[in-house]
Amino acid sequence: MPAVSDKNPQQLLLWMTFIMSMVFAVWQALLNNFVIEKAAFTGAEIGMLQSLREVPGFLAFTAIFVLLLIREQTFALLSLAVLAIGIAITGFFPSVLGLYITTVLMSIGFHYFETVNQSLTLQWVDKQHTAEFLGKALAWRSAAALLGYGSIWLVMTWLKLDYVWMYAIIGGLGLIAVIMMSLYYPHFPIAEPQHKKLIFRQRYWLYYALTFLSGARRQIFMVFAGFMMVEKFGYSVTQITSLFLINYVVNLLFAPAIGRFISRIGERKALVIEYLGLIIVFASYAVVEHATIAAALYVFDHLLFAMAIAMKTYFQKIADPKDIAASMSVSFTINHIAAVIIPALLGILWLSSPQWVFMIGVGFAICSLILALNIPTSPAAGNETNWRFVTKTSKLKTP
């Protein structure tokens, strides 16, 4: 892969990813302890908060209408600024309602940024280098998260400052970095003019289905696996932060290699590996009784996220280049249909049976595995799936 030089679009993508990961990692690492200690949350409240957090993701399709007014690059930077501001003020509102409001504000910035960032990545990076670049971006995310966790240790463990200071400092630093990027980088051109309308194509159905199930899988990890560590095993802020540090050190070391591995074996095999791993992890979550084993499962679960690079490269290979921005908006909405509903519903189920929450996750992983087997060895426009209907009355046909 070519080296990334100064002031090119790939470098901007990496720095935006770095800032997003740094501020969001701090918010995520502190969340479970903050809501339990300061707002007396139970599983029901954390489930509702996470559902509300996903509502802006569900509305991500509206990004295409914003792009009628501003460029994608400008939109990405503005979204990143909103994310930083939402996190900066979180500590000032340690109540159920206050946390719901600040979380939604933060989430608006996060989900719009992720939507546009994915679109720009698929437009600015050549297909043959995308998996490798996304692996490198994951390593940058990990390095940023490590910096964020280091700041938690500095501010809360060494300086003995409260949550409000931690949130304000990291959010403020993120906002300053966004301003600096806005001034430093020029506007980069887009190779293919993008459609400024919603795109929903039948031939992308497999990508949409995998995206939907990915949203469901992500909630099991982000909401309930982390909450289990605090509620069931009594992990402190320091211990949770240490666990996250391990996660990101592992990703920092292995994510670039995983990107190259996906380029070598292809999207189908990569996703099959991911979903088989998820079946094992979620089934183990349901029965684990030892904190150390639960932590090991959590690290392995986090590492499997890197394999999801294959979903993005699969779509890039089958998509019309002019569809990318609009399709990213639609796919983010699809991803969050499950994400909006599942945390609240499973949060209620959690009160009576945490084990069944994770067994439902096993079901999601099995469905994803079946769908992944439908990805061709060499996906491309016109060769989106292994089996497809070519006419209204035709038999199923393989490529």
How large a portion of the residues is in β-strands, by DSSP E? under 5%
Runs in which pLDDT lies below 50 for 5 or more consecutive residues are 1-5, 389-399
- The overall strand count is 0
Structural class: mainly alpha
DSSP summary: helix tally: 14
Largest sheet geometry? none
| Alpha carbon gyration radius | 20 Å
Tell me, rounded to a whole number, the average pLDDT.
86
**Broad CATH class:** Mainly Alpha
Distance between the termini: 30 Å
Look up the CATH topology. Growth Hormone, Chain: A
Count of domain modules = 1
- The name of the CATH architecture is Up-down Bundle
Level of helix content?
over 70%
Q: How would you portray this structure in words?
A:
The chain is 74% helix and 0% strand. The longest helix has 31 residues. It is globular. Helix 4 packs antiparallel against helix 7 and helix 9 runs antiparallel to helix 10. By secondary structure, the chain is mainly alpha-helical. The protein has 14 helices and no strands. It has one domain: MFS general substrate transporter like domains (Growth Hormone, Chain: A, Up-down Bundle).
